[in-house]
Amino acid sequence: MKVIDILNQRSGPLFTFELLPPLKGHTIEDVYETVDALLPFDPAYINITSHQQEVFYIDHPDGTIERRMMRKRPGTIGLAAAIQHRYSLPVVPHLICGGNTKDQLEDQLVELNFLNIENVLVLRGDPVHGEHRFSAVKGGYDHSDALVSQIASLNQGEYLDGKYSGGNCTSFCVGVAGYPEKHIEAPNIEKDIEMLKRKVDSGAQYIVTQLFFNNDRFFEFVDRCAAHHIDVPIIPGIKPLQRKRDVQLLPQTFNVDLPVELVDAVENAADASEIRKIGSDFCIRQVASLIEQGVPSVHFYTQGKAAAVRKVVEATF
Predict the structure, then answer these.
(1) How far is the C-alpha of 116 from the C-alpha of 18, rounded, in Å?
(2) Helices 246-254 and 260-267 sit at what angle, rounded to 10 degrees?
(3) 243: left (phi over 0), alpha (psi -120 to 50) or beta
(4) Taking a C-beta distance cutoff of 8 angstroms, is the pair 150, 187 a contact?
(5) How buried is residue 111: exposed, middle or buried, by Cβ count under 10 Å (0-12/13-18/19+)?
């Protein structure tokens, strides 16, 4: 079932979450354990992240250094298909511009279509680990709105190679990302909203936001979207803070502000267990407030760990 239909037919707020493919060499059973822990709360669908290659440097005995590229978390499509088959739940694999050519992306979409997976979340992707700026591969996309347009064309039976025009029409529902506190590379929030508008105009049917810890920022973002005639559903993305180092890492990684009271509580906590409780309790209050104010759904970033999210969902849904 398509995400947009799930959202339109809902009778109350929905619960969804995101999974990471296992590291290369690890088992899928760890992923199943996370799904099993959250399944009792009736998730509407499950997102599967996608990761491009990373840069590694290998020191050789002769003193030379070899630069290599490797994908640490392959298997997005396979994992999405396995979860959909095992649990009979809609899945939303992420499709990223980073590290992919237009033709490779079309091939991935063809595979997803064969597997009866009809939802994708389209992202530009982050810079390659170890590099400071995003750089599209030759024949790839600099921005995700172009990939949204490609999918919209494929839904009309228009393939990159014109000789296949009029072929099989796919039927993908496309989601995109939004940033309540702006994308870290955007010069200001207005330019960021303009970029989001381009994605929606290209065919995106819903938006899921980057994580945030201040609900006022989310609703200000929703109002800005409305002012720019962005009228698709907007789903808040949430992550429980669980480690002391999150206080430093989350703002640097995701360009988010953390409330003073949350930071002070974490910094004054006696131990790791108290930090987890502080983070979970804060997240419970945050999610309860979002639901009370009528959000269509709440999307959780699990980072592959179910315990904290389970605690929040159990208290709010």
Answers:
(1) 20
(2) 140
(3) beta
(4) no
(5) middle
Residue 128 has pLDDT above 90, yes or no: no
The helix/strand/coil state of 239 is coil
In this prediction, residue 229 carries a pLDDT of 97
Burial 8-22 (b: 16+ CB within 10 A, else e): eeeeebbbbbbbbbb
Query: Considering Cα of 134, then 135, then 141, then 147, what sign does the dihedral take?
Result: negative
Mean residue pLDDT of the chain comes to: 94
Q: Angle at the Cα of 197 (from 196 to 201), degrees rounded to 5? A: 120
pLDDT, tens only, 261-275: 999 999 999 999 999
Q: How far apart are CA 113 and CA 120, in angstroms?
A: 11
Give the side-chain half-sphere CA count within 13 A for 67: 6
Q: In the predicted model, what is the mean pLDDT of residues 159-188?
A: 91
From the list 317, 302, 100, 102, the residue with the least C-alpha distance to 211 is: 302
Dihedral sign, Cα of residue 130, residue 109, residue 179, residue 31: negative
305: closest CA among 239, 250, 246?
Answer: 239
Task: Report the pLDDT value the prediction gives residue 130, as an integer from 0 to 100.
Answer: 66
> Alpha-carbon distance 141 to 262, whole Å?
38
Report whether 97 contacts 140 (CB < 8 A): yes
Q: What is the model's pLDDT at position 17?
A: 98
**What is the per-residue pLDDT for 228?**
97
**Beta strands of the chain (E only): which ranges?**
14-19, 46-48, 54-59, 65-70, 91-96, 119-123, 173-178, 206-211, 234-238, 297-301
Query: For residue 104, what are its two tokens?
Result: 């490779």
The SS3 assignment for 151 reads: helix
Full set of structural domains in the chain with CATH: 3-316 (3.20.20.220)
Rounded CA-CA distance 295/142 in Å is 31
Pairing relation of β-strands 65-70 and 54-59? antiparallel
Question: Which tokens sit at 190?
Answer: 């207005």
